[in-house]
């Protein structure tokens, strides 16, 4: 196989889902933590999540009056990416949402997990989406 043919679509390896026991609060019949399943997000959906996490505001004073500031909310993006990556449990399930008295996958995840568990879920989402380092480390690297 030549170097170029290794890049052909039929030679590309697929992205695999990963499973992680995110919380010790959700256990199976044997008392073991149930694994959550995470799947990679498509580049198109990732663009939408980044757009949802970006806020534009018009500057109303000073030399830049009439121009726009663009602010990227890294924490919102990380949360949206985590929610979008979780395929099991199905956070969009109405019955599951009703059991916690919430509407929406993001609100449900906030009710289900502690802050530490949320960090573990976020790390799994980053891993399945190909981030080698923590998103925070990447942000710091870009700043420097």
TrEMBL record:
Native species: Lysinibacillus mangiferihumi
Protein's name in the database: Phage portal protein
InterPro entries, A to Z: XkdN-like, XkdN-like_sf
Compositional bias per record (Basic and acidic residues), positions renumbered to this chain: 43-55
Span of the signal peptide: none
Entry-linked Pfam families: Phage_TAC_5
Top-rank lineage group of the source organism: Bacteria
Residues covered by region (Disordered): 41-63
